[in-house]
Amino acid sequence: MAEDAKLGAGLTCFVIGPIGSKLAPFGTPGRTQWESSQHLWENLFEPACDRLGLTPLRADKIAEQGEITEQIFVLLRDADIVIADLSGGNPNVMYELGLRHTRDKITLQVGEYERLPFDINTIRTIQFRRTEAGLVDAREALVEALTIAIEGRGSQVAATRLWNEVGASSAEALADAVSRSAQQDDTDPQEDDAAGFIDVLAEGEESIQQFGPVLESATAAINEIGGMLREVAGRIQESDANRGGFAGRLKIANELANNLGGPAGELEDAIASLAAHVEKTDLALTYIFDQLAQDPSELGQSREVMQSIIDLATAAEGSMEGTAAMTQFARQLKGMARGLIGPANTLLRALGRYSQTVDVMSGWKARAEALSATP
User: Fold this and answer.
1) CA angle 86, 90, 93 (to 5 degrees)
2) Rounded CA gap, 361 and 352, in Å?
3) In a shared domain, residues 130 and 271
4) Residue 106, Ramachandran bin (φ over 0: left; ψ between -120 and 50: alpha; else beta)
5) Is there a single domain that holds both residue 156 and residue 237?
6) Could you tell me the CA-to-CA distances from 317 to 90, 267, 355, 361, 364 in Å, in that order?
7) What is the pLDDT of residues 277-307, one digit of tens each?
C-alpha cells in the first residue's frame, strides 16, 4: 500500500482509551493501566499516525489549561479523526464512543483480541494481540484504515447515519418504533426471569468448566517463567561468588533477554485469554449471585456451582504469592540491562492484569461462600 506522509497534515486526531494514572504507585491497577496504555501509544497509535502526517492527541497529553472533561467533549465533537481503543470495554470509553457516533466524522475502532465488548463486535474493529508481531500487524492495519477513511472511501456506522439523517421520514420511523415498543405484550418480566434462571445457571456452569483449562494455561506460563527467573537468580549468585563482577551479570542478563521475550509474550497472551473469560463469566455469575440473594430457594440446585467457583478462585489465589515475587524480580530486571526492559515491561503488564483478574475471582469466592453458608 502506497503511503502519503502528508495525507493527514492539518487534521486533528484524538485517541480515546483506558489510560490509568502515571502517578499511581508501581504495581497498582492504575499504574499498570498507564504503562499498558503508554505501550500502545508508543508502539501503535503514534507510529501509525506519524506515517500519514497526523499528530495524535490523548486526554492526558492535552497541554492547554482548562477543564479536561470539557476539552474531551470538544475533541469528540470537532476532531477530524477519533481512534477508540475498546480493550476491556472501559465504561468511559464506551460513553465517549457513543457521543462520537453522533458526529458525521471519521471514527476508527481498535481493541485487544478477546477483550472486546460483545455489543460492538459488529462494527469493523482492528483487533490485535499485545505481542511485538501483533502490534506490527495492528500498525499496518491502522495505517490502511486511516488512509481509506481520510480519502473518503470508508462508510459510516448505522448509528452515525441515523443520527445525521434529516427529514420527516426518519422522525416518523422513530415514532413508529416507539409505538410498536409500547404495544409489546404485558408478560410479567419477573416470570420470564424465573423461567430462564436454570438456563443462566447452566451457562454459568459451562463457563466455569471452560475456565479451568484457561486458568491452567496461564498458571503454567507463570510457573515456567518463574522457574526461568529462579535459575537466573541462582546463576547471578554463583557468578558473584566467583567474582564474575558486572561483566558476569551482564552476560547472564543478555542471555535472559534473548530467552525471556517469547515466554513473556506467551504469558501475556495466556493472561489476556484468562481475563477475557473472567469478563464473560462475570456477567453470568453476577446475575446468578443476585438472583440467589433475592430468592434463596434456588440454592439447592446451585450449591455444586458455588463450590466450583470457590475451588477455582482458591486455586487462582494460591498462585498470587509466586506472582508477587515475580513482579518484584521483574522490576529489578529493568535496571539490570537495556535488553531486559522490554521483556520486563511485558511481564509487569501481564502480572498486573493477572492480579486484577484474580481480584475479580476472589469477589466471586466471597459471594459464593456467603451464599453457601445460607441455611
Assistant:
1) 65
2) 15
3) no
4) beta
5) no
6) 25, 17, 9, 8, 12
7) 777 777 777 777 887 787 777 666 677 778 8
pLDDT of residue 109: 92
Residue 6, in any domain of the structure: no
Using DSSP bridges, classify how beta strands 55-58 and 81-85 pair: parallel, antiparallel or unpaired: unpaired
Q: What are the pLDDT digits (tens) for 18-55?
A: 888 888 888 888 888 889 889 999 999 999 999 999 98
Whether the pLDDT of residue 72 is over 70: the answer is: yes
Residue 154 pLDDT exceeds 60 = yes
pLDDT digits (tens, 9 = 90+) for 211-254: 667 777 777 777 788 787 778 778 878 877 887 777 777 787 77
Q: Determine the structural domain holding residue 123 and report its residue range.
A: 12-164
Q: Residue 195 pLDDT more than 50?
A: no
Q: What number is the average pLDDT over the span 84-104?
A: 88
User: Strand 106-112 to strand 81-85: parallel, antiparallel, or no bridges (unpaired)?
Assistant: parallel
Q: Is residue 36 part of a domain?
A: yes
